[in-house]
């Protein structure tokens, strides 16, 4: 690295580029982490439109030019190698997980990579306000659920909204909603508070992705739109080829969370 | 119209469809008005990306499917006819102004129409807070200026940012910034406060679009990103064909301003 002053974010990306694998929760605290999805140029418009039509699950932070692996959100980063764990998708199916996506980026010269906001940013803000984030306290992954709520389709892309759930004490639900609302670029306000059955969720103890968490008496399950929603669209729409991060293994940017605060 | 309860917004669109021409400032107060630009499908990705990369001047509220003239923001509306005044652009030049764009929409079957937030929404919020909006009080059009600040390019699209200016008493500048910041879908917080020369603006009395306004002693010129920016990109990028609204003659939606408040 040519930079003299390596920030924690840059140091983490360097570790991942060298092959380290770890979930990124808690790494480089206060810096925006991003969901990623790379698609052939032919699919880029449909995806960008899908994101515009579904901004809560798919808040776009940056889009690369076709064939480019760099982003304005992190100078010197290589999107092919600086994420700890990638998923390779073929015809809407998860094909494999890899730590270096370079060989897969090399399959096509027209891939466009989208960087999408991540809930880690508003979780920091919740904790700053003294609101406990259960899965962080318990050292587990956030529970995520497919829902019966369909996203607004765009071109060939369709799919259900995926939500993440955090139990919040009833007395602090309003504050949690307000705090996250001020960060619309990282999913914003909750999409649903309580009543999981109305989202088609039958068992809060059996998430579709991530781990279940304790819900204490007096706590309400609060649901936020989730950045795994694009992966659900890849599956539902049988996208021929895509490269994404693995859930929980995000791209760490050089941009502070506060940049996106309204 | 099949609807029994015609709102003021719907009534205005019906008048414009029948041929009425008037600036839309003050019409259907409290309802979101939108800048519009229709482009061939081949240019749609570049434009959507340009908007993503320049969200303050180009906050996208809706995008039609190619060849469609309807929007989720106003049921039953016809984007070809429900705007009081349109501009037709050829090779980056303004070709003509018309009250019915149907013949021009008929030239191609793949036009994609973008609806973009408009400052009228935050002007309502400023006035609700008792902050005078000078050009409204004086019954003139808002002064708009080209700047020396280039937007971030996207594909074939480039161009300078256009700003609108409102003089605000020094004691209320912070409040004006905060109030508009909470409406990121309609340009959000100011991009610049005072010091017009740093934007390349030499004479506040000679706007590039709209009318000059009085600046009283103790007032600071406050600059917001402006929805005319896409028209500047059409010109700077020599876009082969585009249909836009005429500045000040907006598309009136059925969506209340409060929908976009954070």
Which strand-content bin applies to the residues of chain A?
25-35%
CATH architecture of the largest domain in chain A: 3-Layer(aba) Sandwich
Mean pLDDT of chain A: 93
Count of alpha/pi helices of chain A: 7
Structural class of chain A: alpha+beta
User: Please, what is the CATH homologous superfamily of the largest domain in chain A?
Assistant: PSTPO5379-like
By DSSP, the count of extended strands of chain A is: 11
Question: Gap between N and C termini of chain A, in Å?
Answer: 33 Å
Main β-sheet of chain A, in a few words?
Answer: 7 strands, antiparallel
Please give the oligomerization state of what you see. Answer: homodimer
Q: Uncertain regions of chain A: pLDDT < 50 for 5+ in a row?
A: 1-6
Rg over C-alpha atoms of chain A, rounded to the nearest angstrom:
18 Å
Task: Note the main attributes of this structure.
homodimer, 262 residues, alpha+beta, 2 domains, four-stranded antiparallel β-sheet, 7 helices, 11 strands, disordered N terminus
Q: Would you mind describing this structure in some detail?
A:
The structure is a homodimer of 262-residue chains. With 262 residues, chain A is α+β, with helices and mostly antiparallel strands. Chain A contains seven helices and eleven strands. In chain A, strand 3 (86-90) and strand 4 form a beta hairpin. The longest helix of chain A has 13 residues, at 41-53. Chain A starts with 7 loop residues before the first helix and ends in a 6-residue tail after the last strand. Residues 1-6 of chain A have low confidence and may be disordered. Chain A binds chain B through residues 44-45, 48-49, 52-53, 60, 63, 65, 72, 152, 155, 181-182, 184, 188, 262, and chain B through 44-45, 48-49, 52-53, 60, 63, 65, 72, 152, 155, 181-182, 184, 188, 262.
């Amino acid at each position: 690295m040519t930079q003299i002053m390596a920030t924690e974010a840059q140091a983490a990306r360097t570790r991942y580029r060298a092959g380290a694998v770890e979930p990124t929760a808690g790494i480089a605290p206060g810096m925006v982490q991003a969901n990623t999805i790379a698609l052939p140029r032919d699919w880029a418009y449909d995806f960008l439109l899908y994101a515009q039509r579904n901004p809560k699950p798919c808040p776009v932070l940056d889009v690369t030019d076709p064939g480019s692996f760099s982003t304005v959100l992190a100078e010197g980063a290589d999107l092919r190698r600086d994420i700890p764990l990638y998923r390779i998708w073929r015809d809407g199916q998860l094909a494999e997980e890899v730590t270096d996506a370079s060989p897969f980026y090399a399959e096509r010269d027209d891939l466009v990579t989208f960087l999408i906001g991540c809930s880690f940013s508003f979780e920091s803000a919740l904790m700053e306000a003294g609101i406990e984030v259960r899965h962080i306290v318990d050292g587990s992954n956030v529970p995520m659920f497919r829902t019966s709520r369909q996203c607004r389709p765009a071109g060939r892309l369709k799919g259900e909204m995926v939500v993440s759930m955090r139990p919040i004490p009833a007395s602090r639900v309003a504050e949690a909603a307000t705090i996250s609302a001020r960060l619309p670029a990282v999913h914003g306000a909750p999409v649903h508070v309580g009543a999981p059955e109305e989202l088609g969720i039958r068992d809060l103890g059996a998430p579709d992705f991530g781990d279940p968490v304790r819900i204490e008496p007096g706590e309400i399950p609060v649901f936020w739109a989730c950045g795994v929603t694009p992966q659900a669209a890849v599956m539902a729409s049988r996208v021929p080829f895509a490269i994404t991060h693995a859930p929980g293994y995000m791209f760490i940017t050089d941009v502070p969370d506060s940049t996106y605060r309204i």
